[in-house]
């Protein structure tokens, strides 16, 4: 037990997106072990991390964490990957990645970052603007591949190239300086990764220079330490490679003007500060070589959530039509609820508009009946939903964008537009939290389902986006079951229900998610398995329930009941 306690203290556990966002605020250097739920964190590096933590303990500049990829949206590209992944966070950005439990590379990277951070804190150097790395999907789904095959390629106005910062520059801490030169010359950096190149990779990448007399020595030099691989971007494609070559030559010229020994002309052609391809054809080949899964079309796209409101008047008349338009435009409805706002709630939500002339009319509209609240998801959801809505002023929408939703879905004699969308990603987060606050609910897998279908049910829980905050597999006593179902006491089926609930171990859980109570009840499906099969065939009860008593799972009916159940059941089990 002592060893386990030490490990928990060494590495902070990150279980969900909120905890990930909180981790980004941590000062200093954070090293995150990204793991899969089925295999757990990498044990091989714990002793190394403990040693490094002790070495750098004097100023608390180094921190370690573990993060389960399955439950964190940001880490979606790393799901179902067998090898260990280590991310490095500095100043709120993920700036580096190491793949595999490579102890020398991990030690080197951690030592460099800690030393840089100490110098910054001591005022000995300025913090350079850091590029956050782009997480690239490891593999495309079959659907994505099919969609790519069926879609005509779009004309691209961005050229991509690969740049390699060689081991000596990496070891001497010049990576950020070189990146700054790249940006200053008008280029962008779409992705970067530090890695040890194999001999095969080096010989393949530099195949055109293999006839040079010092090539074997150069290969050994390139294998002497980690390189930094960049994806470099430039708008318009005509001059991208020549301009980048010119930048490399400038760096080479600067190097020649120093007092360092002069290199031969042949060696200079290989050992520029950062190696780049000679042509667009080579650039494309090398991009595929080092970043085989890099998606050019979606580099700038982000999977987002946004809030949509369908206001009371139009909801009564055009609900189905609007929802179909949303679906047709590629959105998925992640969460939804129908709510009649009180005046207090409406004032709170629209408080930034309280000094506007239209505010009284807006309040009247928003409190006149049920509003449909939707959490919509897709790539670039915020901007795409606002584009679909059109201008806020109805007359302007009709004139300039007659096909927009605000132009199409109007109500006679009402000047307030009938649909709302978040203005920015930050606003979307705040507005979603207003209507779908993070909740906890109590969930239970009943004995028969726990025995026969536990793994399948747990997978459905994770696939639905729940975070399992607490979990325990244990049998309920008759007293616990009776207390748990006290609302059914006196009913004909009560004794059979208690017997069913004590027929073996149950899995009890605390599930966390936005709108958790309602979302868990939706995932469970109707109490009667036959009704569930007919109306909710993908629900847990439709797929795993035996009968109405042994119906696989249980969940709280409301937030108050959830809190009571969590306190009672987990208290009794001593968790």
UniProtKB/TrEMBL annotation:
Region of interest (Disordered), ranges: 246-271
Native organism: Coturnix japonica
InterPro entries (UniProt xref): NDK-like_dom, NDK-like_dom_sf, Nucleoside_diP_kinase, Thioredoxin-like_sf, Thioredoxin_CS, Thioredoxin_domain, TXND_domain-containing
Similarity field: Belongs to the NDK family.
Signal peptide region: none
Binding sites annotated in the UniProt record for ATP: 446, 493, 521, 527, 541, 551
A GO cellular-component term linked to this record: cytosol
Record domain Thioredoxin: where: 1-115
GO function term, MF aspect, one: nucleoside diphosphate kinase activity
Domain of life from the UniProt record: Eukaryota
Biological classification of the source: Eukaryota, Metazoa, Chordata, Craniata, Vertebrata
Listed Acidic residues bias regions: 249-268
Stored SMART domains: NDK
Matching SUPFAM superfamilies: Nucleoside diphosphate kinase, NDK, Thioredoxin-like
Gene: NME8
Protein name: NME/NM23 family member 8
Residues forming the catalytic site: 420, 554
Biological process annotations from GO: cellular response to reactive oxygen species; cilium assembly; CTP biosynthetic process; DNA catabolic process; flagellated sperm motility; GTP biosynthetic process; UTP biosynthetic process
